[in-house]
Design goal:
Chains A, B: This is AMP-binding protein. The structure is a homodimer. The first copy, chain A, has about 525 residues and is α/β, with parallel strands linked by helices. The first copy, chain A, contains 17 helices and 26 strands.
Chain lengths: ~525, ~525
């Protein structure tokens, strides 16, 4: 895909990485140099190369160099510690690692945990320019040395449609991380969703501030943009002031972030000082935006908003909640993208009609190939011939999908099913002093599970259990009202910012004394 | 693709075929019934079903039913006679034929030419409602009987990415027709070009008047439209008055035809009587539109014009000449679509830089798999790892592709290469009394090939050889001026309207007495 893009638009600006700016010809040349260096080092189709990097042109070069040579790329989640990284290096059978200088210690630590690791090469990219020292395992070289005098011409390697382009390890809150095997054809076709549905084209100037090691930023919104010939401005992290300044200075047309990032930008004093008039589309993911935030954001940013929904196993986008429905159907996760068939299934494998609630299941050409070396989990995920998302939801009469809850977060209490998210939403609406609330089911002798709300109040306010319960009663049927309210200073989260309900359930499992 | 489209937009209008109108759910239901009937009749993945049909919902139902079951569809070119049809039935090893009633005689005649044909089933669709009689070979049934009580539920068949979806036989002017093997993944990805590049989406209302048995109408502009949820209005043939009336009555937004069809519509008295205001995009193919026609058409139709260029072996679109360049770069065939890499190659297999002229070659995921049972022609077509178009052209400094000539139509005269099309263009411009001119090289003792112009004057005008030569001299260097002018009442053409230069070369090969 990059080859063709560079061939069509050699002189167009592809990537901005700090002070470094790359045309498509230059980016493709960097990719080709690394591809040739990998081939010279003996890497072949099916070999595995791990990648520990923040958002940088070297991240992109490594991903595309793997794609061109048939090498499998394994991006490392930067929230992981050495144990998780060592697990992934071992499980993926990585032959080498590309690591940014500031992450050299993480990789060295991980390698020390692996007895007789098969990792031969550690290639250190400049990253943030940190000092680093070679570890005791593998041959450590800096990127320039590894590249040597590799040329920028196109490598010619045979790669199959269904060859893996990457193993993306899921966060694994409840078990060891699972390696999602993504094929070339899946990533190819998925990459076209954003151009097809959101009009991403060669005139787009986008910011990538969400981590490239996560499929949403990588395959959801980067590969398609670079295929259509747009420009990607890389940022290593979200910072409201820096992002607002970048939108102005780089004349950004499209951004992608979490709902809270838009809130933080709107609350920042710079919001009125920056020229945001080039923005045409702001994307968000993970969760619907609260209605008041959304209305304010549409006005403040003066552009369309849309939500992308999906998951790593689908590479990842499955539905898009488009701008024209944002206010009329607030809270929905939108319409299936053309490349994904979305169904609602009961536990027996029957597809359910519109309006009925069940597990959200997917079919389509950009589903994963399976979980690496995990046939049982793969078979379970594809039971009845559909990929099982683990999400519960329903379609409305307009064909829009509504996410209710993670299947495992639905609370079974006194013979009723209660979506934890419904209770959370009611509490947010009824009690503005709540900063964050998480609702889980905890073991209970009488109710089987009893609903519990874990609450973080807004800074500087007081909030009692009785006040929270009164708020719940004002909005919810009796059986949906929590049986207990617990207070917490902050919530446990995964690397991508998801609250770990399973950790809260574990912490508080004895609360009702069972 | 149709399954997902119907799943997303069950109640939207998919196809209009005369008085019959089909929603996506209904169209998909028809497809599924035929798929189940094929399965019940024993058809399996890899079996071959020929299809002799004008533009009708039954054509579409057969193509998609084959796609869903892994059966290979072989559309019959309706300009063929029984000998060509019998060749294709035998060469493709067709197990059955779906034929419209008015074409039953063609298929019967073809089957009689095949000794011990393997064709078991002949299924007669209503078509134009002609009387028909069962032939002597195979079991003849009407479509309703063949369908029986087949249900409309989704069939569940395993089909591979690279399984053939069709064998499309090329016209074969110089040799036996070659069967282009098109894979599912190729047609899938090619279908996305029109949505990606031309903005074809679910709001589109298109007319299909070009034959569906030709890849341009079928995979170029139909499968993508139906994937995005647009509406297709079928017409069995081009008729200027009928098309103008349909644009008005069906509120058509997009049409596709040959340059001469736009000229015929503009010259028709109804052009001023019909409301064409819904049109947003008029596509043309095969050849650039003369500049004066194009300027007039943009004004008369009040919409954007764009050209699609490609060939059957590429399934088919390779470049699009987009609206914004139509007037500034008139005569170009446009920009490569994202899914195709376009190169210019010399005879030794070297890629040439922009500006240099050579053979146009292609790479990309929607190239054909090869020619059916013809490894030599396949190897030749993919020499040096690129598909060889047989077209000669160059890229300009703006990245636009210019088609110069078919490689075999380039005239080698006195040590110089002359593009026949350049001479034709000069004659059209300099001598308005020419209706049509074809320039070929004919064997000549001194010049190796000598340039000859075959001319059809406009009706009712007189034109002499000397006048034509004077026109040529006014525009061309001496070595490009024809050595002879021959007059013809009409030109020999292929089924798709291409002038057969090879036939003219053969007819006149003795003109210079060699």
């Amino acid at each position: 895909m990059l080859t063709r893009s560079a061939w069509r638009n050699p002189d167009r600006e592809a990537v901005v990485d700090g002070a470094r700016r790359f045309t498509y010809a230059e980016l493709n040349g960097e990719v080709n140099r690394l591809a040739h260096a990998l081939l010279a080092a003996g890497y072949r189709r099916g070999d595995v190369l791990a990648l520990a990097s923040g958002n940088s042109v070297e991240f992109l070069a490594t991903y595309y160099a793997c794609a061109k040579t048939g090498v499998v790329c394994v991006p490392v989640n930067l929230a992981w510690g050495p144990p998780e990284v060592s697990y992934v290096l071992e499980h993926s059978r990585a032959r080498g690692v590309v690591v940014e200088s500031q992450l050299a210690g993480l990789v060295d630590g991980a390698l020390q945990l692996v007895e007789g690791s098969g990792v031969l090469d550690v290639v250190v990219a400049p990253g943030t320019g940190a000092d680093w020292a070679a570890g005791s395992t593998g041959t450590w070289r800096d990127l320039a040395t590894f590249l040597g005098d590799a040329g920028t011409g196109e490598p010619e390697c045979l790669v199959g449609d269904r060859d893996p382009i990457s193993y993306l390890y899921t966060s694994g809150t409840t078990s060891a991380p699972k390696g999602v095997v993504s094929s070339h054809v899946a990533v190819y076709i998925e990459s076209l969703n954003a151009p097809l549905v959101l009009g991403i084209d060669g005139k787009e100037r986008s910011v990538a501030m969400m981590p490239l090691f996560h499929t949403a930023q990588l395959n959801g919104f980067t590969t398609g943009l670079l295929y259509m010939g747009g420009t990607l401005v890389l940022m290593r992290a979200f910072d409201p002031a820096a992002l607002l300044a970048t939108i102005e200075s780089e004349r950004i047309t499209q951004i992608f972030g979490l709902p809270m990032m838009y809130r933080m930008m709107m609350d920042h004093p710079d919001i009125d000082k920056r020229d945001l008039s080039t923005l045409r589309l702001a994307l968000y993911a993970m969760a619907p935006m609260p209605d008041t935030d959304l209305r304010r954001a549409i006005e403040v940013f003066g552009c369309d908003f849309a939500l992308g929904f999906g998951q790593t196993e689908m590479n990842p986008i499955t539905t898009v909640f488009p701008p024209e429905y944002q206010l009329s159907h607030a809270g929905s996760v939108g319409l299936p993208v053309p490349n994904v068939q979305v169904g609602i299934m009961d536990d027996a494998g029957n597809l359910l009609p519109d309006g009925e609630t069940g597990e959200i299941v997917y079919r389509g050409p950009h589903a994963m190939e399976g979980y690496l070396r995990n046939p049982d989990a793969t078979a379970e995920a594809f039971a009845h011939g559909w990929f099982h998302s683990g999400d519960v939801g329903r379609f409305d009469a307009d064909g829009l999908l509504w996410f209710a809850d993670r299947k495992k977060d639905v609370i079974k209490t006194g013979g009723e099913n209660v979506a934890s998210i419904e209770v959370e939403k009611a509490l947010y609406e009824a009690e503005p002093r709540i900063q964050e609330v998480v609702v889980v089911g905890l073991p209970h002798e009488r109710w089987s599970e009893a609903i519990a709300a874990i609450v973080t109040p807004k800074p500087g306010v007081e909030l009692t259990e009785e006040e929270v319960l009164a708020a719940a009663r004002s909005r919810l049927s009796g059986f949906k009202v929590p049986k207990a309210v617990l207070f917490a200073d902050e919530m446990p989260r995964t690397a991508t910012g998801k609250i770990q309900k399973n950790v809260l359930r574990e912490q508080h499992k004895g609360h009702f004394g069972t």
